[in-house]
Specification:
This protein is of the alpha+beta class. It has helices at 3-21, 69-72, 227-234, 287-293, 321-324, 326-339, 420-427; strands at 33-34, 51-52, 60-62, 65-67, 80-82, 84-85, 88-89, 91-95, 104-112, 129-134, 143-148, 160-168, 175-180, 191-200, 217-220, 223-225, 242-245, 251-254, 258-265, 272-282, 285-286, 300-302, 308-310, 356-366, 370-377, 379-389, 394-403, 410-417.
Length: 477
């Protein structure tokens, strides 16, 4: 095998191995991981005794009742929620944060028939049936399953652990609900508590381009909200929101190689050595800036008087997060530093870079009849996470793609044969300025009437010519 062909093969194999080495482990095999559930044991708000129409913190409840630990009748002292209030069937729901569309989710919980002694038509001694469902609200293809509690004596709880429901997430942060199916009056409803969830995460979407990141997803509590509102609240101060990085969907990668500097074409018969300065800039991208820039029309927000006003968050599309939304950039950078094992946010040698300009002086060798150029394969960070405003109970999923400061760029000296155009240019004659000469067909004295030959008298003017005779001179030794 020729030496050059072998070199190219080895370079390709080495490049492939390095690229694969930068991918997270979950790119090859997904493993079940825990899914956080807000107030999973319904401990807040805490009740001293009895029952209350209060909704558990972090949950949505419609016609539900919160039972204290004593009223729930569990040995472990957990509170519970009844899927009924005042004889009306109810629904208890929440969202599973950090679950991406396509993930396989399994939720477990404990249930019991109602321990209330005054149940009538929905007799707990025969079991009480309810439905658990997950999916986009109002969608016809939502996953659901019916569950029936174990039979019990009237006025006594009968808890069963390990109730289970599995589904494939049809949206990010899917909503899951428990609803009592008895529509008759005087319903006392089953109890549920002790919620847990795991997921087989969806594959990391490596094919998303940095200039077309997903739109930010905003929530007020568990209900969808406008990203404009969350951004405005987070911009109030550098610590109004805090950023939590999602390690599973954040990764480092090498960008597509691109040519930087100039190409050197060697038309000579000798090897040439060239020293050239190379400079390039890596730019930042983020979903917030792209969201505000994707529509040409201004995003407007009503004032207290009901009149629309220009939203102050509108920025030109060429701006990055630091220029358009400074406090958001500070919050994301601080969350990135904390996730890198620096909870005090002290100075670090791996800060989040929003842009980076590099300069290099490189010496390259160009063989006869070849073309040489420099390519750079930039190191970048794809950052996924959530901005959280604790006091307003708001959150927003955002993405950023920035230059990486934790590992270096790759440089390639590329050489190759000339193209047909380059070969023709090397074989072309020198391009000199042309002078009037009959041999090359340029304007001459005979075909250019505005040129007057030396010795010819202009019209109307008498001239005379006196021949000069050169005398003989003595020869020189």
């Amino acid at each position: 095998m020729p030496r050059r062909t072998m070199t190219y093969c080895l370079s390709a194999l080495l490049g492939s191995s390095l690229m694969l080495g930068t991918l997270p482990g979950d790119a090859f095999a997904a493993e079940a991981v825990d899914v956080p559930i807000d107030n999973a044991d319904l401990a807040q708000p805490q009740l001293a005794k009895g029952t209350s129409p209060k909704v558990p913190t972090g949950w949505d409840g419609k016609n539900t009742t919160l039972f204290s630990a004593a009223s729930a009748g569990r040995g472990d002292g957990l509170q519970a929620a009844s899927l009924s209030r005042n004889g009306i069937s109810g629904t208890l729901s929440t969202r599973l944060w950090r679950v991406q569309q396509g993930s396989r989710v399994t939720v477990t919980w404990a249930d019991s028939p109602s321990p209330l002694p005054n149940c009538t038509r929905d007799d707990p001694t025969k079991g009480q049936e309810y439905q658990v469902s997950a999916g986009i609200q109002g969608a016809s293809d939502a996953d659901s399953a019916n569950v029936k509690t174990e039979t019990t004596q009237r006025g006594k709880a009968n808890w069963r652990e390990g109730r289970q429901f599995s589904f494939t997430a049809k949206e990010n942060n899917p909503r899951i609900s428990w609803s009592y199916l008895n529509k008759q009056r005087n319903a006392c409803g089953p109890l549920v508590t002790h919620f847990r969830a795991t997921q087989d995460p969806a594959p990391v979407p490596y094919d998303i381009k940095k200039a077309r990141l997903p739109d930010p997803l905003a929530y007020q509590g568990t209900s969808p909200a406008r990203p404009e509102d969350v951004v405005q609240h987070c911009l109030a101060g550098p610590r109004s929101c805090h950023f939590e990085k999602d390690e599973r969907y954040s990764y480092r990668y090498y960008d597509r190689p691109r040519m930087v500097g100039q190409a050197f074409i060697n038309c000579t018969r000798n090897t040439l050595t060239d020293e050239r300065p190379v400079q390039w800039t890596e730019l930042p991208y983020d979903s917030v800036t792209q969201y505000f820039s994707q529509n040409k029309e201004s995003r407007k927000k009503p004032t207290a008087q009901g009149r629309p006003q220009q939203n102050t968050q509108k920025r030109p599309h060429q701006d990055d997060l630091r220029q358009g939304h400074q406090n958001l950039a500070v919050q994301i950078a601080a969350g990135f530093t904390r996730a890198d094992g620096n909870p005090m946010e002290m100075a670090t040698n791996n800060p989040l870079l929003f842009d980076r300009t590099e300069k290099r002086t490189m010496s390259v060798t160009v063989q006869p009849g070849e073309v040489s150029w420099i390519e750079v394969q930039a190191a970048r960070e794809r950052l996924s996470g959530t901005l959280i405003h604790s006091s307003k109970n708001e959150r927003m999923d955002v993405h950023a793609d920035v230059p990486s400061g934790s590992f270096g760029d790759r440089f390639y000296q590329r050489t190759g044969p000339m193209s047909k155009v380059e070969l023709a240019r090397c074989a072309d004659a020198r391009d000199n300025s042309r002078t009037p000469d009959n041999s090359i067909g340029a304007p001459t004295l005979r075909n250019a009437p505005h040129l007057t030959p030396a010795g010819q008298a202009p019209k109307g003017i008498q001239t005379r010519t006196i021949p000069l005779t050169v005398g003989k001179s003595s020869s020189r030794d």
